[in-house]
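[audit] Reproducing an earlier prediction to check determinism. Same input, same settings, fresh worker. If the tokens differ from the archived copy the diff job will pick it up downstream; this log only records the rerun itself.
[audit] input (394 residues):
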Amino acid sequence: MEKLIGVGLALALSAGLGGAWYVQAPTDASLKAEVDERPVLPRVQDGVASSPSLIAEMMAKRAEAGDDVRILLGTSELEQTTEDTAHPVRFFSENDCGFSLMAVGNAGCQSLWQATEVAALDAEGALPGRKIALMLGTQWFMGSGLSESAFAEKFSEESFAAAMGNKRLSDETKEKIYQRCLSMGADQATLDSLREQSLTASINRAVAELVPEVERREAIAAELAEGSSSQDEAQAKKHPPLTWEELDAAVLVDAEAMCTNNDLGIYDEYYTEYYLKWDEKNRAENKPRATEWNQDEFADFDIFLSVCRDLGIEPLIVIQPAMGIYYDNTPWDKESRQIFYDQMRAVLDEAGVEYLDLSVHDYDKYYLKDVMHPGWKSWVEVDKKLCEFYGDAQ
């Protein structure tokens, strides 16, 4: 509410500065009205993900209709949905499994973003059941890890402010998030203002945010217009769930139809446009093995686990596979990947966190659709695990 008051006062202040352009942008009221009418958004990307309060509004509206919504966090793999029967976005939109799924995140959303988003969603009351599932990207931990440009592109002032205002999040964890954001190039004055939970700070932020706030609201409105639907429309798409045997058969048909020009189980366009030239380049360079994975990303992931621990949230982590036949010709070969997998399992075991380990399928066909994104058979395993974690297993 304080944020809305501040924006309203800032809007009034802007009137004397030629602020009519701001009035024409989507307002809080218009976005809320859109969400109230069409609250179902199976895949949440940059715009809506930047507003945990709007996600909470969606979930509350769906709960009123008796829809039990759960969240899957992730990155670019959440975008790979169109022709994949088992992809969680599609599977849980079409199969009535006793709960619905909202996939939140896209390319560039890494551990620091995930930690901040969970703290913000919890502050807004948007994590029913005190559980969260996360697709952990192996590539996040390669090379230099999170880049400043990727951080800046995904950073949400609303999410950061909500996380800092979460009264159940420890001061220690808040300080870790704050310091890490600073280290990634965030402006200290901005972070300090966002961390301050006063009306004056809210007004000052709102005045400073007039132009970026318009752009953000426009992005939210566009995302809602493209992908949201009413509760009735969403329910009409659902049918009794496929059995796992039926789903196994369906994904095999999908995979074979998309992978016709190679024996690796990579979809055709990716194989011809990317794989062949990248693999040739890797073999020619023959770089030495990577013996250490990015420890800053491990530290960021530890912040994510700290957020969950502070807030009493039970996480499920999916360790994604990487295509062995490709990465074995890069610095992240089999022995190198084993270092990562062993370290990640040790972290999760020590934290007592449940996980689905798909790394055992690095060399198995149809578990990846390219060299890094889970494919047909992986998604069947993920769907099964989500059903066990969030609802009744079939």
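[audit] rerun output stored. Observation attached for the diff report: The chain is about 55% helix and 5% strand.
[audit] end
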